[in-house]
Amino acid sequence: MALPYDSAAKLQEYAHPEMIVTTEWVAEHLEDPGLVVAESDEDVLLYETGHIPGAVKLDWHTELNDPVTRDYVDGPGFARLMSDKGISRDTTLVLYGDRNNWWAAYALWVCSLFGHPDLRLMDGGRAKWIAEGRPLSTDEAKRPRTDYPVVERDDTQIRAFQDQVLAHLGQPLIDVRSAGEYTGELLHMPDYPQEGALRGGHIPGARNVPWARAAAEDATFRTRAELEAIYLSEVGLRPEDDVVVYCRIGERSSHTWFVLQHLLGFPHVRNYDGSWTEWGNSVRVPITRGDSP
Amino acid sequence: MTTPTFNPRLQEIVDDFNAMAGKERLQLLLEFSQELPALPDRYAEHRDLLEPVPECQSPLFLAVEVEPDTTVHLFFDAPLEAPTTRGFAGILHAGLDGLNADEVLATPGEFSSQLGLQDLVSPLRLRGMAAMLARIKRQIREQRG
């Protein structure tokens, strides 16, 4: 059974307030049956240092990715993973994590490929929970195993592949990487050379809006008015646009996907998870260097 | 296929990891992250003396000192919010600090893949530890001239 939505005033301004909850809401509902809280971090050990009591761990490297092919787990793999975590198809699944919910947004996007009905992000993530002095636990949460159904992944709505991006050229594209990666000055994210590409620059026509601009100092999402000032007024996107977002491997752009689709209510936003590590290594795809789209 | 040989201290760490099952290895890595010594004042007040290791997912800085008798001392700085990176640094500190330069230089580069952490941590994240070791060795060679 789905849990009630969070009625916090800031959230009601967003297009889909049902997709987001505050730390207060999580603290209040932590014991409710039907809720599973999952932590998804860049650092694979952060959960072990302390997490929201009862929260399970969901790791993108070792659990959401297929171990062999560059792809996500398939329907049976996702069903196995969810069952192991004690998540049912009707569970209200609240995700949170480190670094402005960067990886939590990525996990939420992957869960969305399988159409999990009730997904929510905890605004402010791990940093806000800790800053507010809320309790942490080092006990690994063990929930009773469930029988999550096998649902095939739907890659047609919110995921874009390279050939689709090639066909999309000329339509709105948002590159959410740092300015240095966008211009081609850097072949990789600062401090992450291991996921580099052979060529630097961006997809022709892409506008550069670094993903973290959507986050405030306390790691929460900016208000709807602030987000509209960036994506509508400054970048010129219109809600009816067909938008493709990308970064390096699709994680930072999941955060922007969440902002455009769920906070601003754009119905057509796709995340190109191949992103620069595919595009910048591909033969004969067009690349633009410098700071103009 | 030959098994690489490590100095006795590193070998003990490798054995400890491999003696454990699955998730217990993460707990051991967490213990190494907690045991990583804090920077001494001479580095804490002069972080510019530390070399950045950008191959790690989270910021890590290190310094290497080689004494006249070639005893090697290692110093690491990584934020508490990056326990995996701290854990890798803690393993290298526990396994190599105080050895002589030749012993450190003899550490096989594939050390990080011998801990049984690939499935738990991912090979991509483990590259950070290999990069730390490579930089430590390079600094020792440079300092020996």
SSE map:
The complex is a heterodimer of chains A (293) and B (145).
Chain A: H1 9-12, E1 20-21, H2 23-29, E2 35-39, H3 46-49, E3 56-57, H4 60-64, H5 75-85, E4 92-96, H6 102-113, E5 119-122, H7 125-131, H8 162-168, E6 173-175, H9 179-183, E7 207-208, H10 224-234, E8 242-246, H11 252-263, E9 268-271, H12 275-279
Parallel strand pairs in A: 1-5, 2-3, 2-4, 4-5, 6-7, 6-8, 8-9
Chain B: H1 8-19, H2 22-35, H3 41-44, E1 51-52, E2 61-66, E3 72-77, H4 83-96, H5 101-105, H6 118-121, H7 123-144
Antiparallel strand pairs in B: 1-2, 2-3
Helix pairs in contact in B: 1-4, 2-4, 4-7
Provide a descriptive summary of the structure in words:
The complex is a heterodimer of chains A (about 290) and B (about 140). Chain A is built from twelve helices and nine strands. Chain A has about 290 residues and is of the alpha/beta class. In chain A, the strands form two sheets. A five-stranded parallel beta sheet of chain A has the order 1-5-4-2-3. In chain A, strands 7-6-8-9 form a four-stranded parallel beta sheet, with helices on one face. In chain A, helix 6 crosses helix 11 (about 250-265). Chain A is globular. The mean pLDDT of chain A is about 95. Chain B is mostly helical. Chain B has a three-stranded antiparallel beta sheet with strand order 1-2-3. In chain B, strand 1 (about 50) and strand 2 form a beta hairpin. Chain B is globular and about 40 Å long. The termini of chain B are far apart. In chain B, about 35% of the residues are buried.
